[in-house]
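Work Package 4 report. The design task specified in the project plan requires that, given a folded chain encoded as structure tokens, an amino acid be chosen for each position. We show below one input record used in the internal validation round.
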């Protein structure tokens, strides 16, 4: 079963295509919890974890999760496209959208997007291995590999899957790494952690962005991350959605 949490039209806020008009499909569920990220007051409780906590915590946000199939996803896509006179990018995000990669409804939707000639990005934590021989449409997708570092609070063996990363990079024409950095991690071991992950792929672009889904939190880390990129030759990525809308949900 495929669960969609929300869909909206906005600009891409992060990574290679920052600033690009995009239709977002946010799918529910994740195989990681990243307990060191984010703090949210929800129903009077303090909840830590993903900045898209509503796409991870089904228990607290059950009313926002709805089961969908390919047909409904295509209708949602059409409802966005009918207001535009150009082809926007399409972003499949979460949570972790690759939880559904084998589901015929999700895979069929990806195939539909590719057949329509749309530029598609799947934002993934890079821990789930895709069979590109079985589902060829994924070869035409751009993968934003947001592999988690130790500042996520996840153990190494949970957050780094070398076979999954390798399969994505070897089977796609273009994908990129996108790391979330905190000031403290930079002071300790960020460079070593990143190099450990990217070393086999010198041709793949590396974006680093500051931790924070609130403007005040982003400001604690942004300059340190920019300096880190200047020193090591990585590409700085801001988080435009935070700068523009803070924690406001896009609809």
């Amino acid at each position: 079963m495929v669960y969609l949490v929300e869909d909206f039209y906005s600009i891409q806020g992060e990574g290679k295509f920052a600033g690009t008009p995009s239709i977002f499909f946010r799918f529910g569920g994740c195989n990681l919890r990243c307990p060191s990220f984010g703090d949210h007051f929800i129903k009077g409780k303090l909840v830590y974890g993903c900045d898209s906590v509503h796409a991870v915590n089904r228990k607290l946000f059950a009313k926002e999760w709805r089961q969908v199939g390919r047909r409904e996803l295509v209708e949602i896509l059409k409802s966005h496209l009918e207001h535009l006179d150009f082809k926007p990018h399409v972003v499949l995000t979460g949570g972790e959208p690759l939880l559904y990669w084998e589901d015929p409804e999700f895979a069929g939707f990806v195939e539909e997007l590719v057949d329509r000639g749309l530029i598609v990005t799947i934002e993934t934590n890079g821990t789930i291995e895709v069979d590109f021989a079985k589902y060829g449409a994924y070869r035409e997708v751009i993968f934003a590999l947001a592999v988690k570092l130790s500042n996520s609070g996840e153990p190494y063996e949970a957050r780094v899957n070398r076979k999954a990363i390798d399969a994505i990079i070897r089977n796609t024409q273009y994908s990129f790494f996108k790391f979330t950095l905190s000031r403290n991690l930079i002071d300790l071991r960020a460079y070593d952690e990143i190099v450990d992950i990217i070393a086999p792929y010198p041709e793949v672009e590396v974006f680093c962005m500051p931790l924070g889904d609130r403007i005040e939190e982003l400001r604690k880390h942004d300059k340190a991350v920019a300096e880190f990129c200047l020193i090591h030759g990585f590409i700085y990525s801001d988080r435009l959605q935070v700068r523009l809308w803070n924690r406001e949900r896009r609809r």
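The mean pLDDT is 92. Validation will be extended to a larger panel in the next phase.
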